[in-house]
Design a protein that fits this description.
CATH topology of the largest domain: SH3 type barrels
CATH architecture of the largest domain: Roll
Distance between the termini: 48 Å
Structural class: mainly beta
Radius of gyration: 22 Å
CATH class of the largest domain: Mainly Beta
Strand order of the largest sheet: 1-6-2-3-4-5
Largest sheet: 6 strands, antiparallel
Helix content: under 10%
Number of domains: 3
Number of helices: 1
Number of strands: 16
Shape: flat
């Protein structure tokens, strides 16, 4: 679907230079001489590279709509994560590198949002938080102030996380999937 550059918004997906780009930022610039233009910061959906480009405000750009589906994570096979569409039961494989670090938090049966373009998965959004078992917690170092210090711990998936000093091992905690940070002790 063609839109004018003045209508570009952050979050839009554009087809530009033969690639798909997600718009991160858009500013309008009015130079002293000449017409106004849109300065657009974009990230390539496949490679992750960034690009800053200018478009005249009346220039037509191709906006792409992505299909967003709820899919259930099934398993990892090497570096490929397999998801199943709950409506059609079709399976889609997504490379681990496309998911990034949050892939560590994928658990069997987890429902994720998968964005597809022409049947090809471009991104996977996990739930914001996940509850996991803390299997290891380092002892508290004496002399540290309790208000600002955290100690290392290890989750059931092997991922390291910084936790407050009062949390011990074999406790379930809530973790932010985006950056792997401790949020709170799980309410059992």
């Amino acid at each position: 679907m063609k839109i004018n550059a003045i209508d570009i918004k952050p979050g839009n997906v554009l087809e530009h230079q033969g690639k798909l780009w997600v718009v991160l930022k858009r500013d309008f610039v009015q130079p002293g001489k000449g017409g106004m233009f849109a300065q657009v910061e974009m990230r390539d959906l496949r490679s992750g590279t960034k690009l800053n480009d200018r478009f005249r405000t009346q220039e037509a750009v191709e906006r792409v709509s992505l299909d967003e589906k709820e899919m259930q994570f099934l398993y990892f096979e090497g570096e490929l994560a397999t998801f199943m569409d709950n409506e059609t039961y079709e399976q889609t494989q997504v490379p681990r590198e496309l998911i990034g670090d949050p892939a560590d938090f994928l658990m069997e049966g987890m429902i994720c949002q998968v964005k597809l373009h022409e049947g090809v998965a471009l991104s996977v959004d996990l739930p914001q938080t996940v509850t996991m078992l803390l299997v290891e917690a380092d002892p508290v170092v004496k002399g540290q102030t309790a208000s600002s210090s955290y100690k290392p711990g290890k989750l059931e998936n092997g991922r390291r996380v910084m936790i407050p000093p009062h949390i011990d091992s074999n406790i379930r905690i809530v973790v932010n999937t985006a950056d792997g940070t401790y949020l709170e002790r799980a309410k059992d």
